[in-house]
Predict the 3D structure of the following.
Amino acid sequence: MDSDLTLDGNLTLDGNAAAGVLAEVFVSECTTAMTRCDACGAVEMVGALKAYVQAPGTVLRCRHCESVLLRVVRGAGSCWVDVRGLTWMQFNVATPGRSSGADAV
């Protein structure tokens, strides 16, 4: 892990420092994650989006304006995820000492 001290005294690390939080988020139940369409602003759960699965990959579209929100393509031992159509994606994650049920933030 590389680290640098910036001119303002803040310690910056390379992306490996985010491994724990990313692993926590991306193993979550994704269909209940909330999304915001960058085009129309609609907020929906992933499970409520329109899914097209017969393309070369999986495409999720906004059910309000039909904009492409998320693309997933697998191949050659890799997986590519394109989320350019989303303003944000909110996952429910377990907090220490609490269950990972619906009450988790």
